[in-house]
Amino acid sequence: MNIIKRECDIIIFGGHGDLAFRKLMPAVCHLYNDEYIDEKSRIITISRKSISLKEHKKLVKEKLIEFLPKDEFDEEKFKNFEKQLEFCKIDFDDESNYKNLKKILDIYAHGDRVYYFSTSSDFYGKICKSLHVNKLITKNSRVVLEKPIGLNLQSSQAINEEVLRYFKEEQIFRIDHYLGKDTVQNILALRFSNRIFMPLWDASNIDHVQITVAESVGVEGRAGYYDEYGALRDMIQNHLMQLLCLIAMEPPCSLQANNVRDEKVKVLKSLRLMTSTDIETKTVRAQYIKGQSEGEIVPGYSENIENSSTETFAALRVDIDNWRWNGVPFYIRSGKRMRRRNSEIVIQFKSVPYSIFHNNGACISENKLVITLQPNESIQLELMNKIPGLSEHMRLQKVALELNNPINHKRKSSAYERLLLDVIRDNATLFMRLDEVEAAWKWADKIIEGWSDNLTPLRTYTAGTDGPSASIELIARDGRSWHDECC
Ligand code: BG6
Asked: Whose Cα sits closest to atom 6 in ligand 1?
């Protein structure tokens, strides 16, 4: 494969934060080592800390050793990589601080810049204005905005408006790292390059869809951020909604960014807005209490943050009001401190209209397409098959057809690596357009409002379990069960 090396400066605001060290720096380091970016590209960390460049480089090295997968840190390669590293102390409230950044950026004339905002979205407008005032926005500049943008539709609109004063929509890359995961992109390949699914992918053949993103970790060192956002804003409004869109969207006319985004936005606009009764009956919110996670006793959420009503778990029944999905519920749930890390999408097909098999009284399982994103990526199609042998009545068993990609390629690229490279290449297909973000907030806002009016109680669940029993009841009311309850 021919790799085109790019000249592109990557400027990371919030560059000493958790995301920057855990995900962004390892991703940039790989892109540099794999020669996607060349020597005229600087990786400029912006932080409020007073620290020398030498100390910064030492810190980056320590963090790479900590966060790169085992055996991936290469001392020799780091010696080259560190030459690209720069550090700039900036206080966001002081526009004059940007002069130092200008000095570094002006060394090369390419003007190709990726400004990555890994800060609270409250700062986005302020940073954009300072970049503008200091003439740092070139025509080849792009800006990457981390989610969640704002706390609701209104605040999100205000932030986006501020950014749009200085950057054009085509220059804005609203990132959702779930879209960079290989298996998530494979949903497009699976759906739109295999004819067999085409006639089956609708309300006449699909009974329901489940989307689960369960994490065994808690809020780690991000309690301050998380307590303001909770599971609905941190995970569901963005990651789970994007997964839902990829499952529910119509075929786009090409993979060109706006064609894909047009189809996703149609799904988001078709989400049924919840009424008060829906919020009571179709939503569950809960917070974890002390329990055992991965063999260790862990404190409850409120033991660290007192009097918090933030949900660490949410489960919802989502309805899509359009021709394809009329009457097909999408059950979605996400939580922290769950029994195990498990992210999966289950498409459950309807049962056969009539069974001609005795099957010893056992029922015939409905076909399921199970797309697992984490911890291991896989795609399985569950089918019924004959049990070999001479039994009097033909007996059946459930078997899984594995559609896994052969794992023969060298290192697996991370979601952030892929997405950063897309920004460098100016390809916005896997990024969210303004109208997508707004449509997702419009839907989420109804639930946020209903929860703040206490239309459904904040329940508890023991850390290390599958969440509150109300989540099981939510789906059981419709005569269904979560996929992991039945296996
Ligand atoms: C982030 C959330 O966007 O995604 C975190 O802010 C969450 O709270 C993380 O832990 C999960 O990402 P992944 O890729 O580990 O599933």
From this structure: 234
